[in-house]
């Protein structure tokens, strides 16, 4: 199993621990991730609200780099990167007018031939849950998690084609495999406020507070995520939410890769579990005992 | 040969763009044309008189009428020339209106085109042969497929005229969907109170035969003479011996969720679906009956005082002939489990309108209480969602199911009547209340019964704290709405029966992209199909409420009776004819015929002194579509009125 790895900007900065844990898990499972050299922006929010063509040309440029690595599959972790790369492929494959314009911009011929997969998809559907269960050394039994998919992983469904649109379950299936108990909760795909984080923090606080509350009400001890922006909104803003809404949430927001890593016996520090604002270590230690 | 050409002005419809005088003049120069004339309205009485008089005066023997489409006035002119003593198949229509004047502006060019169109008709008419209408006998009996309100009404109407009629119903009782309804909009009559008298009437009628637990298995033949195989499924109870006393189903130990009550209540393995069933004779559900599953029990047979239980009963296939068929197979409900936002059909308290009907019914599974299925508690806040499956190209069907607005309003009213403390919230896209007293009814539900109408869609339903949280948009106030509901009722759309396509193919009637049966003309032949002798009624054609269903049922009956009263059936002679000398017996025409009107026929070929197979056209079935003539490699089939030689003549005239 060999993939051209596209980390995207978050995984090199605010979501460093997502990058670390992904590489650790991949390494432990024998999934080879070769980082695309000299990758650039995926065309997410700043680009796609500026100019449609720019938001296609940027991801295409990255996909072309992956193609030159002789790799026809790209692995990515960030939900926004995943979304942009998939949308670019859709346009390049089906919309001849856009294809022509974008090819002119990037100076190369591209028809959407480089396939894009989310790392969650690779773990569940390519590596396989059965194979994974055989590698698990420390089952995380007793941990209750709310799997939170956010908006970009499953939408638009005809393009992402990843999971059930209204009731996604890939992460829940993955958590069950490593012994975590996923709770039933209806907010799997609610909005966290996303990139309003800086411009309209009040919106993010309200939406993220609702998500935390629902997870708490349904008995979740942690929220598991697959998107750096979801993670940052829920984790980074938790203290502000507590202040504003007079709550006392202490819910760690973890990447699925971190929990998978723990179940594979990888050291918590290597998975970046010490990098969160809401410290998960106390809870995880308790579970380990 | 003396051909007459008559060119119509059609007021200014034709003459404004076509120089009709020039057309008439030019054509009179053709060698076979002995007379030509124009008139303002050729179809009017004076116009027809002109045609008739000219035939006499100029001894014309073939006529070309250059006017509108033959669909409109071909019959008029056929009759007209027949009165003047000419065979009606020696008249041709040249369509210079729809095909010319209406679609062109340049008068010079349009005139030239009109000339050519008419010249073709002259060429064709010169090769016309006099034809005679054919006649086929009629079996004076009508088959009605489906025993819901639609089929029942059709059968009653036909029996009024004293023609025998047979209803084939796949359930063990007639009554169909309407039997499950509680009240009917907008008058709030109790559905059973108005339906069951009709059920009794039809069952006691000497002209009506009812086959329940039965299905049509095979249909062959054609208008006037349909041969139909009906499978009468083994009921395991003798219809003649049983008195419907009920001892058997009282004692039967097996409980099965009742389909009639939307699985909210139970029935037994031997059961009648509802108390007013017709016939009031139970059926054994062999899948669940202990006797059939494990050869145990046998209690019903032991206790039946009339010896009516027969475990050895077998399916019986009967074959009967009918002159006409009325299709009244109704509809089924859209399955809302494709809607993830409404919980994929997994939430117990998200139900459909039909569930609500059964709950509201005093003889229903909850005794007339509107309750939550999860805990049996009476529902206070109820959210109704309209257009579930309807008007949704992504997950459902694109059409409007027409009755959901009304039945939802009715449900909101019934809810309030059953529970004064309750509150109804209705999410809608548009309120479509086009019917007599319908709009007034919806208004009444809003004003007198306090139903809250919210214009918008529901985005998500989820369970929390024993309630259903319903989130949606209210597009009129521009805000988001969240309602803590006890019960959510989905107004699921009406869709075609799952076996509709199979039936359509059996009957050779067309169906649309939604598997709804297609009428012969959406406006002018709404209960006919393009297959003569087969008529449509009710929701198998498109969603219909009870008044419309009953209206189409009566309409279809009249159409069927129109056939019944004839001594023999007149058939157009414009059918395919096989020349057996030329036919090689390749059977390509049999494959090509959409109406199964061509058969193999073994003939004694005297030239080769052997028997061989050739094609034979069933004149009563052939519609004259011409598919067979196009595929015939030997040119052995010709279509009367459109023969190869006529078409060649037309091409040469170009």
Describe the structure.
The complex is a heterodimer of chains A (289) and B (654). Helices cover 52% and strands 11% of the residues of chain A. With 289 residues, chain A is an alpha/beta fold. Chain A is globular. Chain B folds into 4 domains: 3-126, Rossmann fold, CATH 3.40.50; 142-330 and 516-564, 3-Layer(bba) Sandwich (FAD/NAD(P)-binding domain), CATH 3.50.50.60; 333-495, FAD/NAD(P)-binding domain; 576-653, Alpha-Beta Plaits. Chain B contains 17 helices and 34 strands. In chain B, strand 21, helix 11 and strand 22 (423-428) form a beta-alpha-beta unit. In chain B, helix 2 crosses helix 3 (70-83), helix 4 (107-126) runs antiparallel to helix 17 and helix 10 packs parallel to helix 11. The longest helix of chain B is centred in the N-terminal third of the chain and has 20 residues, at 107-126. The two termini of chain B are 21 Å apart. In chain B, 45% of the residues are buried. The model of chain B has no long low-confidence stretch (mean pLDDT 95). The interface between A and B is small, with 7 and 8 residues.
The averaged pLDDT of chain A comes out at 95
Overall shape of chain B: globular
Query: Under the CATH scheme, which architecture of the largest domain in chain B would be assigned?
Result: 3-Layer(bba) Sandwich
Q: What percentage of residues of chain B falls in helices of 4 or more residues? A: 25-40%
- The domain tally of chain A reads 2
By DSSP, the count of extended strands of chain A is 8
Mean pLDDT of chain B: 95
The top level CATH class name of the largest domain in chain B? Alpha Beta
The CATH topology name of the largest domain in chain A reads: Rossmann fold
Largest sheet of chain A: 4 strands, parallel
What share of residues of chain A is helical? 40-55%
Q: Stretches of chain A where pLDDT falls below 50 for ≥5 residues?
A: none
What general outline of chain A do the C-alpha atoms trace? globular
């Amino acid at each position: 199993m060999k993939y051209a790895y596209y980390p995207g900007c978050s995984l090199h900065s605010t979501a460093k621990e997502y990058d670390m844990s992904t590489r650790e898990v991949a390494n432990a499972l024998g999934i080879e991730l070769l980082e695309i050299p000299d990758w650039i922006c995926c065309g997410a929010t700043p680009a796609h609200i500026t100019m449609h063509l720019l938001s296609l040309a940027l991801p295409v440029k990255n996909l072309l780099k992956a193609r030159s690595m002789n790799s026809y599959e790209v692995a990515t972790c960030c939900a926004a990167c995943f979304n942009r790369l998939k949308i670019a492929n859709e346009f390049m494959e089906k919309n001849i007018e856009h294809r022509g314009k974008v090819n002119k911009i990037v100076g190369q011929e591209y028809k959407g031939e480089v396939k894009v997969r989310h790392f969650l998809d690779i773990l569940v559907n390519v590596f396989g849950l059965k194979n994974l269960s055989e590698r698990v050394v420390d089952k995380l039994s007793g941990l209750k998690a709310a799997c939170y998919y956010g908006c970009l992983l499953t939408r638009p469904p005809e393009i992402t084609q990843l999971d059930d649109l209204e009731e996604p379950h890939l992460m829940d299936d993955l958590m069950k495999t490593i012994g975590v108990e996923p709770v039933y909760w209806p907010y799997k795909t609610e909005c966290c406020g996303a990139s309003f984080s800086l411009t309209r923090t009040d919106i993010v606080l309200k939406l993220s507070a609702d998500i935390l509350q629902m997870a708490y009400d349904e008995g979740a001890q942690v929220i598991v995520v697959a998107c750096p922006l979801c993670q940052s909104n829920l984790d980074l803003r938790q203290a502000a939410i507590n202040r504003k809404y007079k709550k006392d949430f202490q819910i760690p927001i973890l990447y699925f890769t971190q929990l998978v890593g723990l179940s594979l016996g990888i050291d918590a520090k290597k998975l970046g579990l010490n990098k969160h604002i809401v410290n998960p270590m106390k809870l995880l230690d308790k579970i380990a005992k | 040969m003396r051909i007459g050409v008559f060119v119509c002005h059609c007021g200014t419809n034709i003459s404004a763009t076509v120089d009709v005088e020039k057309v008439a003049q030019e054509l009179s120069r053709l060698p076979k044309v002995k007379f030509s004339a124009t008139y303002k309205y050729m179809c009017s009485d004076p116009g027809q008189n002109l045609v008739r008089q000219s035939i006499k005066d100029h001894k014309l023997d073939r006529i070309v009428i250059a006017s509108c489409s033959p669909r409109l006035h071909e019959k008029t002119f056929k009759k007209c020339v027949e009165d003047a003593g000419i065979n009606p198949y020696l008249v041709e229509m040249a369509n210079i209106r729809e095909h010319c004047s209406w679609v062109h502006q340049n008068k010079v060019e349009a005139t030239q085109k009109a000339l050519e169109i008419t010249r073709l008709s002259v060429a064709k008419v010169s090769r016309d042969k006099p034809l005679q209408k054919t006649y086929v006998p009629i079996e004076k009996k009508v088959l009605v497929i489906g025993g819901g309100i639609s089929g029942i009404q059709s059968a009653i109407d036909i029996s009024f005229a004293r023609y025998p009629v047979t209803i084939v119903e796949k359930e063990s009782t007639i009554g169909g969907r309407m039997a499950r309804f509680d009240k009917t909009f907008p008058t709030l009559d109790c559905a059973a109170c108005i339906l069951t008298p009709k059920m009794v009437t039809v069952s006691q009628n000497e002209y009506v035969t009812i086959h329940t637990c039965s299905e049509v298995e095979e249909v062959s033949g054609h208008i006037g003479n349909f041969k139909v195989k009906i499978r009468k499924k083994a009921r395991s109870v003798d219809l003649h011996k049983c008195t419907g006393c009920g001892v058997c189903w009282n004692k039967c130990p097996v409980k099965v969720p009742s389909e009639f009550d939307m699985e909210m209540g139970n029935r037994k393995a031997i059961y009648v679906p509802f108390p007013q069933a017709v016939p009031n004779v139970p059926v054994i559900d062999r899948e669940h009956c202990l006797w059939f599953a494990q050869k145990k029990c046998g209690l019903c047979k032991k206790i039946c005082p009339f010896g009516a239980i027969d475990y050895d009963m077998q399916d019986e296939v009967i074959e009967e002939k009918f002159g006409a068929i009325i299709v009244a197979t109704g509809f089924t409900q859209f399955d809302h489990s494709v809607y993830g936002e409404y919980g994929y059909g997994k939430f117990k308290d998200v139900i459909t309108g039909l569930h609500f009907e059964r709950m509201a019914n005093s003889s229903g599974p909850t005794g007339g209480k509107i309750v939550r299925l999860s805990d049996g508690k009476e529902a206070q806040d109820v959210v109704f969602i309209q257009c579930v499956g309807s008007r949704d190209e992504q997950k459902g069907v694109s059409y409007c199911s027409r009755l959901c607005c009304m039945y939802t309003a009715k449900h909101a009213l019934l809810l309030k009547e059953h529970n004064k403390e309750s509150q109804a919230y209705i999410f809608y896209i548009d309120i479509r209340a086009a019917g007599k007293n319908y709009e007034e009814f919806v208004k009444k539900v809003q004003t007198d019964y306090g139903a809250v109408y919210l214009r918008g869609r529901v985005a998500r339903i989820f369970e929390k704290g024993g309630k259903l949280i319903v989130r949606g948009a209210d597009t009129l106030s521009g805000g988001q709405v969240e309602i803590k509901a006890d019960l959510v009722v989905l107004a699921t759309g009406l869709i075609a029966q799952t076996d509709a396509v199979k039936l359509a193919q059996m009957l050779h009637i067309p169906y649309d992209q939604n598997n709804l049966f297609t009428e012969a003309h959406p406006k002018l032949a709404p209960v006919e199909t393009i297959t003569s002798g087969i008529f449509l009624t009710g929701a198998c054609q498109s969603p219909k409420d009870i008044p419309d269903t009953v209206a189409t049922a009566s309409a279809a009956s009249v159409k069927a009776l129109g056939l019944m009263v004839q001594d023999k059936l007149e058939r157009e002679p414009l059918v395919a004819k096989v020349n057996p000398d030329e036919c090689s017996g390749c059977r390509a025409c049999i494959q090509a015929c959409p109406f199964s009107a061509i058969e193999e026929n073994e003939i004694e070929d005297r030239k080769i002194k052997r028997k061989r197979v050739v094609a034979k056209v069933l004149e009563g079935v052939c519609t004259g579509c011409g598919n067979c003539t196009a595929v015939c490699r030997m040119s052995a089939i010709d279509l009367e009125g459109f023969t190869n030689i006529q078409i060649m003549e037309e091409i040469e005239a170009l």
